[in-house]
Task: structure prediction
Amino acid sequence: MKFYNSNKTKGIGVIGVLDGDTITLEGKVRFRLRNIDAPESGLCGGPESKDELNRLLKNKRVRVEEEILDQWGRPMGLVYVGNTLVNLKMIESGWAKYHADKTSDWETLKAADDKNKAEGKGLYGKCWQRENKANPKCNIKGNIDPGNSSLLKYFVPGCVHYETTIVELDRDESWFCTEAEARAAGYVKSLRCP
Result:
């Protein structure tokens, strides 16, 4: 399935980078890089992610493989400049994370992301927080449920999973100073809290 007119030999031109995982191809086709997830521009790591993808693709022609539509009907695939898999380069840079999807390269992409996570590189170093170093008094952790993005939970010190809960600022998770502040933002107290 092709979502644009592409000459296999010449590839297709990139006319813009929207964020760290979405580009605009010739013909004004918005196209997502498959197997990766990058923060939106206004979130932690968003500017770095967009800058990295722009560095990799500015004035380039690309080849797209393993195209599918995502859950919202947007085209996505593996993007190559020559023989270089841009999706992998984004994960290796640390400014994009692996997103589970079965492609021919998923294991390589996941291994690169696992390495970044273990080393605290990129998003994992800048945007993942177990403690609020900027304001230690605001220590209530607001999390978005990974299986249900509309389920917002908060954890106070003393909750069963408080110590292991990570605030992912690149996913728009938050720190709160009071439970009232967390509730006002739409979060509910975790059932694992006293």
Remarks:
- The chain has five helices and 14 strands.
- The mean pLDDT is 93.
